[in-house]
Design a protein that fits this description.
Length: 230
């Protein structure tokens, strides 16, 4: 049996596929990445035709609009529902990591399965139990009135050489990359030194806890934060 939410404000049922698509568009848009049919399909591990059909349904339901360059964008109504899905997902990730000690590289997949079935009442109990956290284990803000915004800050590969960099968020879609970064100590709350970049597309060298590490673009593209005084 498929769990379906039936918001009173919408004519269409909010199936897990609907919620996953809304959340994906929300996160990609926040990162400044195009929410194209192919990109959404790749992230959700479904075929592009499946996403095309879903986007047509979401457009008809007033949750999504298609831009002139054929990208998907959330309407104000769609963004409201997307934030609700994101809130559930990130609160569940935080609960799994803090209370059940699930590693940060595993909580995304577990929360992805649970977010479609958790009741609003239980979610509010989880929120109170955790003392209303602002961010999840990856540094992503948990949507709430007056809480932090969705801004991603500076990506690590854009930080100039010789600066101190405060890690605030790490994109959570690659479990293997999260495990590797955690092993190096590159996690939200850590401050590292940007040492140098090797020429001709070489890696970026950073210093964490006095130890230098070489990070390629696939890793530096996941790490976001801000430059701080050394």
């Amino acid at each position: 049996m498929i769990d379906v939410r039936l918001p009173a404000c919408c004519a269409m049922p909010h199936t897990p596929a609907v919620e996953d698509t809304l959340r994906t568009i929300f996160v990609r848009s926040g990162r400044g990445e195009p929410a194209s049919t192919s990109a959404i399909a790749e992230e959700l591990h479904v075929s592009p035709p499946t996403v095309s059909i879903m986007l047509k349904r979401l457009t008809a339901g007033g949750l999504v609009v298609r831009t002139d360059d054929h990208l998907a964008a959330l309407t104000e109504h769609g963004a409201t529902h997307a934030r609700d899905v994101v809130r559930r997902h990130r609160l569940l990730e935080t609960f799994l990591e803090r209370v059940l000690e699930v590693p940060w590289d595993e909580v995304h997949a577990e929360a992805d399965a649970l977010e479609h079935t958790v009741s609003d009442r239980l979610l509010e109990r989880i929120d109170r139990y955790l003392d209303h956290p602002d961010r999840d284990p990856h540094g992503d803000p948990i949507p709430r009135d007056g809480g932090p915004g969705e801004e991603w800050g500076v990506r690590l590969d854009a930080a100039p050489e010789g600066v101190r960099f405060a890690v605030e968020r790490v994109y959570d879609r690659d479990s293997a990359a999260l495990r590797y970064l955690a092993g190096l100590g590159v996690q939200p709350g850590v401050r590292l030194d940007v040492v140098r970049r090797q020429p001709f597309g070489g890696p970026l060298w950073v210093r964490v806890g006095g130890i230098e590490h070489a990070l390629g673009d696939p890793l530096t593209h996941l790490v976001h934060g801000r430059v701080v005084p050394a």
